[in-house]
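Quarterly update, task 2.4: copper (II) ion-bound model.
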Amino acid sequence: MLRLKAGGRLRAAIKNSLPREGEHVSIHWHGIRVPNAEDGVPYLTQPPVPPGESFTYDFAPPDAGTFFFHTHCNTAEQLGRGLAGILIVEGDEPEPYDTERLIVLRDWTIGEDGKFGPFLTSEAARAGTFGAIRSCNDMIAPDIAVPASADVRLRILNIDRTRNMQLGIEGAECAIIAIDGMPVSPFPLKAWFTGPAMRLDLAMRSPAEGRATLYDYFAPEPVPLAHFRSEGPPMRPRAFDPAGLKPNPIAEPDLESAERQVFSFSATATGAPVAAGAAVPEGVPAILLDDLCTTPQTFWAINKRAWPGRDHSLLPPPLATLRRGGSYIFELRNTTPRIHPIHLHGHSFKWLRSNKRDLPVHHADTVLLLPKERAEIAFVADNPGDWMFHCHIIEHQETGMMSYIRVA
Ligand SMILES: [Cu+2]
């Protein structure tokens, strides 16, 4: 975990010590509005870092909050094996909480033989490959000590490659205070649906005695992920009234003049790539691969274009080019029966509405699209460069549901 203060600068060198020949790496700073050259996407924003070589990132995060960083190369396997870290930017609390706990949720894909993998399976065509072992802070349902009757800030991160989680806490009062690191006016937590890469900051009033439990309800039976055990004398006798966090300097989109763009997230019918110009069989959606881009398997596409591949080489043209400083409304249409957490690099957007759910307006960098959902987000395209726009179920990303947006 890296912690720095808002306004501070991060200089971080990555050294590739991976043993496998050709296994290159990079670091993507998820949710941080970095300059494009620091965004850590091989071929798109930087050359990949081959074994034995180094690369130094240098930027000042403009926003406080809960973020993470991860490799953006061969992501299914590298993230699967654990190449990720947490980045906390401090400075958003007008008054400090009594204490804070980090809650990092993920699966581990480990077979009965005790070995990692496989990380990319035919499940890529469906929900993706789930790990056999679920963890919180690399432990199974740990017991986490907290002071009794205290206001505890929980920084919860879903850094799994595949798993969507409906998070809720039983045994304690909780309010959501930030989503994807971006503050919201506190509102009571009932349950909140998170996909891979999404974060949730909670204020929790710990119980006077006993314990509270964090559950994932998106399962046949609720799965306990962590327990919070109260210790010591009660700290706060008064009613729970959590303080909000300071807002981050996100530009406000002008919805009146915003240009609307529609993005359709779809599946291929056959799982086979269709080369550009090739005859498309009747009844099969035309998934056009860019000429240079070939892969054995393509299951997913954005606006009927697939850019598959584990290493992001063979760049297609951008999916869309936005005018720098312009306001945009993206309408995101999920035409599939699967859930897709759609992530845009370099920007924090505003959730506006959906045809399926009534969520409070909030900022985010990843939007969870439910099956057949149409959601609208808005933002100012104020960060110039080429920005990845992809599903964060990594197997969906690596089999086609990946593209990029140019801000010029
Ligand atoms: Cu997906």
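Highlight for this quarter: The chain is about 5% helix and 40% strand.
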